[in-house]
Each structure stands twice: as structure tokens, then as C-alpha cells.
Amino acid sequence: xxxxxxxxxxxxxxxxxxxxxxxxxxxxxxxxxxxxxxxxxxxxxxxxxxxxxxxxxxxxxxxxxxxxxxxxxxxxxxxxxxxxxxxxxxxxxxxxxxxxxxxxxxxxxxxxxxxxxxxxxxxxxxxxx
Length: 129
Description:
Layout lengths: L3 E7 L6 E10 L2 E7 L2 E2 L2 E2 L4 H18 L7 E8 L5 H12 L5 E6 L8 E8 L5
Parallel strand pairs: 6-7
Antiparallel strand pairs: 1-2, 2-3, 3-8, 4-5, 6-8
């Protein structure tokens, strides 16, 4: 099965594309690159609540574009800028993934951009053929 790439990531700094795809699909596996609370090339203002909702919405939009759903997600990686946001993040995360909980790692990390949370994931869906 050929590899399919889903777009590039644009920055607000002149709209330059970063050197990676938003997601790559290969043999039923979808690897979604780390997503942040970005809209129109800029990180949205807001606290951990607003940024978590936007970040998850960005992940779900990529899954949907590729023909996957939250039930197909097998692994999630989460980076939080502030570990004190862990429980607030979890409450929101459960709204989206509570019915189909994937394996997950969550760590504290300084971010490369000014955001509070970053999420990547891996999904699998058996393809016909």
C-alpha cells in the first residue's frame, strides 16, 4: 500500500510550511504529527481548557480527513507545558477519548511554540484489499 501524506503545517511567521506532514498513512496506520492549539497559523489565546479543546479538535479533524475516527486511535502522546494542568487536561481529554481510551503517555515539556499542550497520535484501521 502506498504512503499517503496529509498536508503540511503552516506557521504564522509568513505562512511558511514546516518540514513535516500533518499526518502520514501507511498500510492502515495513521501517524498524526504533534498538534497544538493553532488556528490560521497562530496559537490561539487561552488557558489549558481552551487550548486542549482546540488541540483535540485539530487532531480529530486530521483523523476525519483521513477516514479515521476516535475509536481507531491506539496511542496518544501528550506534552504539557505545566504539570499542574494535568487534571484539568484529563477532564477534557476524557470527554473525547473516554469511550475508546487508547494507550497514552503524558509528560511535561518545554514547548517549541508558545502553547500549553501538544498532542500526537497513532490510529489503525484495517483497509480493504
